[in-house]
Amino acid sequence: GAVVSQHPSWVICKSGTSVKIECRSLDFQATTMFWYRQFPKQSLMLMATSNEGSKATYEQGVEKDKFLINHASLTLSTLTVTSAHPEDSSFYICSASWDSGSQPQHFGDGTRLSIL
Amino acid sequence: GQNIDQPTEMTATEGAIVQINCTYQTSGFNGLFWYQQHAGEAPTFLSYNVLDGLEEKGRFSSFLSRSKGYSYLLLKELQMKDSASYLCAVKDSNYQLIWGAGTKLIIKP
Would you call A104 exposed, middle or buried from its count of C-beta atoms within 10 A (0-12, 13-18, 19+)? Predict the structure, then answer.
């Protein structure tokens, strides 16, 4: 149980393109979803937390207009990287939890984004 | 501030036992989690401790002492596939998950 699907796995695109990443909880309802970014050999960095039906809470230093998050249903959250540039190239990982309390976060497989 | 400390890197031999320590200082405590992350992949959930003591799951066990702000992950009968980073994370009083930087475990034959 607790399967999270993330799509796409890999994206390579030109600078200036907007990229949408989907995160789905397949066998549970995710009241809370999280978006992380991880650069090579570095720690996970939380970008934002989203609760179904409400605006995402962004971490300090993360641009809301750059990284658009939508959590329209209990099983789907999307992250759109708008007008992506080479410095946005990273490993983006979503996770989901069925509560905001003591339950663990379950991760998707991640999306490797390369901006040329 | 909130802080989680774990060793940066450890090396162990196939078939042996290794203990990865984690100490934490957080504003409140609502559980401690261990995750495994292979290079280039997303983390996978290993264990959860909220009460003091040892939780055993096959070859992996996790221990917690809340009074000492301390946990360890014990891996037995090490296999080459156990080479990965092991992440310690704590939920604080607001249920925010605070992540450690991870311990890279290298298994040698």
Answer: buried
Q: What is the mean pLDDT of residues A36-63?
A: 90
Q: Which residue of A has its CA nearest to B39?
A: A41
Q: Which residue of A has its CA nearest to B31?
A: A102
Q: Is the pLDDT of residue A73 over 80?
A: yes
Report pLDDT digits (tens) over B61-105: 999 999 999 999 999 999 999 999 999 999 999 888 999 999 999
B32–chain A nearest CA distance, Å: 9
Nearest CA in chain B to A100: B95
Interchain pair A44, B99: CB under 8 A: yes
Residue A30: is its pLDDT beyond 80? Answer: yes
What H or E segment, with its residue span, contains residue B86?
strand B84-91
Residue A23's pLDDT is what? 96
Determine how many CB atoms are found less than 10 A away from the CB of residue A47: 22
Strand partners of residue A92: A37, A111
C-alpha distances out from residue A93 to A38, A44, A74, B26, B80, Å: 8, 9, 18, 24, 25
Number of CB atoms found within 10 A of residue A38's CB: 18
pLDDT over threshold 90, residue A11 = yes
The number of residues in chain A equals 116
Task: Give the pLDDT score at A24.
Answer: 95
List residues of B whose CB lies inside 8 A of any A CB. Answer: 30-31, 33, 35, 40-45, 48, 50, 87, 91, 95, 97, 99-102
